[in-house]
Amino acid sequence: MTGMANALSMKHKFFHWPLEFPDVFEQGGFDVVLGNPPWERIKLQQQEFFANRDATIANAPNAAARNALIKALPQTNPQLFKEYEQALHTADCTGKFLRESGRYLLTAVGDINTYSVFAEIASSLVNKKGRTGIIVPTGIATDDSNKAFFGAMVESNRLVSLFDFENREKIFKDVDSRYKFCLLTLAGSDIGQQKARFGFFLTRVEHLQDDRRIFSLSREDFLRLNPNTKTCPVFRTRVDAGLTTKIYRRVPVLINENTGENPWGVKFATMFHMSNDSHLFRTRQQLEAEGFRLWGNKMKRGNEVWLPLYKAKMIWHYDHRYGT
């Protein structure tokens, strides 16, 4: 049993902070934690998994077609199917551990990403007067799955600063130019940071010294601007932030989920989800093969009519043909 435990420990690289640094944690934790944690989704991504293994599966036109090809793997490529099953098992076990271990109460939700759980770990490793500084995707402050963590940092006055960068000027050479990441700084629980500093859409380090881009928000500002999500509002300039906070002091949010107020009478609904509902869609070629013919912008066969599906990216406010 001991041998098996040691083998698993070596394979999965178990690491227990208090055991590795007992003297540090006797003093309450580290004074400073700095890091650039991995940015990877725990859930197995089919396209990524098959990209270098089976191009046909990876390049399938939609999720339904891809799943059909995977389902046939036990007959067409049993070894690849075995590898896929093992990868699924590993991802599922990792997700189960993160969700049920009790260690990641704020970030082990939704579609878990490693940067989120590392951010929570980093925030817990410092002592009451320590500081944490990490480079993570800006989603740590704006994504719904991270709202519990970010909201906790705001409400406990631990958020010191968040500076969001776009990689258009290749600060990170191997990262896509459209990718957004941030410098996140957190304080220990005893510091009591009353206001946090922010900057968004920065593209170079020098922008951190540009007073027009950098602004501050208090805990009260967050509760006023985003009372439901508790995520971070995004502003390009100090003027934008100042104007918006003034507006929200005078005008209520559309719906306050905490109080149930809906002064604007707003309702929300979802029509189609491109992945989950992909089995409902047909291409023109598929419909023509079934005897349908183009009729205007519809496909028709007798009394049966299929309507065109428009994605939001195909439409602009003032041009209905924007994406065509």
TrEMBL record:
List the EC numbers from the record.
Answer: 2.1.1.72
UniProt KW keywords: Methyltransferase, S-adenosyl-L-methionine, Transferase
Q: What class of enzyme is it?
A: transferase
- Could you tell me which residue ranges the Type II methyltransferase M.TaqI-like domain spans? 8-48, 103-172
What terms describe the molecular function in GO for this protein? nucleic acid binding; site-specific DNA-methyltransferase (adenine-specific) activity
Q: Which reaction does it catalyse?
A: a 2'-deoxyadenosine in DNA + S-adenosyl-L-methionine = an N(6)-methyl-2'-deoxyadenosine in DNA + S-adenosyl-L-homocysteine + H(+)
One Gene Ontology term of the biological-process aspect is: DNA modification
- Tell me yes or no: is Membrane among this UniProt entry's keywords: no
Q: Which Pfam families match?
A: Eco57I
- The protein here is known as site-specific DNA-methyltransferase (adenine-specific)
Which species does the entry assign this protein to? Schleiferia thermophila
